[in-house]
Design a protein that fits this description.
The complex is a heterodimer of chains A (292) and B (332).
Chain A: H1 2-16, H2 18-36, H3 71-107, H4 109-124, H5 127-137, H6 144-154, H7 157-171, H8 174-181, H9 186-222, H10 233-242, H11 251-279, H12 281-291
Chain B: H1 2-32, H2 37-46, H3 53-67, H4 73-85, H5 100-135, H6 140-152, H7 157-171, H8 189-225, H9 229-236, H10 241-279, H11 284-293, H12 297-325, H13 327-331
Helix pairs in contact in B: 1-12, 2-3, 5-8, 5-10, 5-11, 5-12, 6-8, 7-8, 7-10, 8-10, 10-11, 10-12, 11-12
The chains are: A mainly alpha (292), B mainly alpha (332).
Chain lengths: 292, 332
Amino acid sequence: MANDVLRATIRDLFRFSLSFRFGSIILMIVGILLLLSFFSPFESDDRRVVPRNKPPSQEFILGTTGTGQDGFWLLTFAIRNTLMVSGVAVLIGRTIAVMVGMLTGYLGGKTDRVISSIVDSIIVIPRLPLLILIAAILQGEMTVLSLALLLGILDWAHPSKRYRAMILSLREREFTHTAIFSGMNAVKVVVQEHLPFLIPLLLADAVAGFLWAIGMEVTLSVLGLSDLSTPSIGTLIFWGNYHHALLRGRVWILAAPIAASVLMVVGFYLVSLSLSEYLDPRTRLSRLTMEE
Amino acid sequence: MNLLRTYILPRILQWALVIFVGISATFLIPRLSPINPVDEMIGRMTAFASIDPHAVVSMRESATALFGLEGTLLEQYGRFWARLFTGDLGVSFGNFPRPVSDIIGAGLPWTIGLLSIAILISWISGVFLGALAGYFHDRRWAQILERFVVVVYPIPYLIIAFVLIFVFAWWLKWFPLVGGSRGQPGLTWDYISTLLYFGFLPALSLVIGSTAFRFIMAKSLTTTEIASDYVQYAELAAVPKRKIILFYVARNTMLPQVTDLALSLGALFEGALITEVLFAYPGLGFVLYNAIYNADYNIIMGITLLSIAGIATASLLIDLLYPIFDPRVRLR
């Protein structure tokens, strides 16, 4: 049943939304690259396995690096690691956001006012300098996982406001009162009755969350603040810069991760755009009239 | 009087809260980390040379005092605020004993200049291009423009800057790879022209991303705005289209954009930091980059504190100026 609804939704999206069509195709390409990393003939830390600094050719589609690694297979590892970092970050961030949003939205009153004004302050605070400060202190001890954790902890304030607004409107609905009068406690009402309404919004929001996380992963790595021995989109750019790829005319070393990052963010953005358009009741109405 | 109570006072309270939360977080985070910066620094200094153990002890003492790590957490917190109020951010370890405030002060004008020019250009062009594209939404050029913006918008500043360097500085060689200016600083055309020449690409990388953001918001605001009665009335009254867009539609969409500018200042500032790193532009971003390499915590800390206070204050100023633009707030 739920599967049918999901399939119908995806079919609708594919048919009516140009951005979903392009976005999902791009993400599929990214996904295939990610899966290919599991079939790589080399390990991600194998060095000097191929000739060094060769430009792209039939044998090496994306050329080879200064450390004697194959650009293409290295890129598949990089995509996997970057997506893993951002995926964990999005998961942590949205979990905190849902909890804060549900708490403030449902409780209302003074608690809501106090927490909301703290959340409003956190939104204004620029996160990059804070991230750099933390990463600089942890330097050397930074792992892929701790970076994901760090990004997740810093990315919940904005989404929590959206969830709060949603819960605020749900709280005034008939079924909430019915649930309360029949003796459900607050936690149960929120989790069993309200959370299902939040899921579509959460989905669109999580897809958009990848944008920030990918951007920050790349930024911190280019500054040399992440685990530089693990290949990721950002660390590939870092090492390319470090070995002066541009000045020595080895463009392919930098071009591949840059192109991959553009592909990833554009894919995620197009999908999130189409999802939020789909969820918007106004555009849904125009779509219904179009079908008639 | 009413305006003061319902609008200005809450904004100022919020500003104080932002600064309090941000500065407390900056104070707490390094202290919660498992790594002691003092040990870290001494480890780095003694790694390559054997130093007399007595010297190490006295070094540890002075470093602990320097980092403000003496006493209980609460005492440290009190001293932290006391030092901030006197504008004392400590000394740089990379450029010992130059004060941090001195080094940051040297980079600040570059960042403020770059940022304010980029914000001005991107805000105006985003609002007007968005209004045009929203009003003529069925024209071919508007659709092409929108597709372009949708692709550019999600790309991080860093990647945009990289592509610009790649195309215009490295491949076409139209602009310099690094630097902020050339020649003797002064109000001569020679110097100012190098400022423009060196600043063009860094500013452009900021303008592209932030214009796209403004454009998307302006277009959706315009789409709601053109459905309203006054626009239809103006069209029926044969008011010139140019006038409808510039004086009615764009003007009405500007108000939410002013509020939003205050909220997006942080992101723009982050973009400026990254752009400066990539172009080796002598602003705060480049100072920060060097500090990361020298593990100069005091400078990183100083820039973090300054950016929190600066962004909060700038958005407070925008909020306080808002009643000037919005007649509804003014009249209330």
